[in-house]
Amino acid sequence: MRLLCLIGIILMNLAMVGCAPITKVSGYVPLKAETDSLRVGFSTREDVLESLGEPLNYKEGFSNSMLFVQQKVETVAFLKPKVNERAIVKLTFDETNILSKIEHFAGVDAKSFELERQIVVSKGRKLTFWQQMFGNIGNFSSEQFLD
Questions:
Q1: How many domains does the chain have?
Q2: Is residue 125 part of a domain?
Q3: Is residue 49 part of a domain?
Q4: 21 with 79: CB under 8 angstroms?
Q5: Domain region containing 73
Q6: pLDDT tens-digit profile, the chain (147 residues)
């Protein structure tokens, strides 16, 4: 009886550990102190790149703004990943590439930014079952089987 209870407790603990959420943090947002060191009206695009690094959407001469995005995504078991936190820093430049505005968004404000959801899927190389089976013939050496 004790053995059965012990096995049951061990199985329950394994099940609970198996459903622990997996947290993934991606992206980069500069610290408040780093953005405070930038001077609106004086700092150039090159100054910003030198002090903060390259942002998420940087293309030379393409846009009048830079976005730094960081998000925390949590996945539980086999369920769809859920974005728990998102922080965004938007730096806007005028026509002469001088910093004109610094905006910080976090939490609810950051949800207003709709990031592109389109995923590029590569078709890859479609192989039939027989192509996969016979494609491996000759790919093995005798040394692999002797170890």
A1: 1
A2: no
A3: yes
A4: no
A5: 20-113
A6: 888 888 888 888 777 666 778 888 888 889 888 888 888 888 888 888 888 888 876 666 567 888 888 888 888 877 888 888 888 888 899 888 899 999 888 876 656 666 556 555 556 667 777 877 777 776 666 666 665
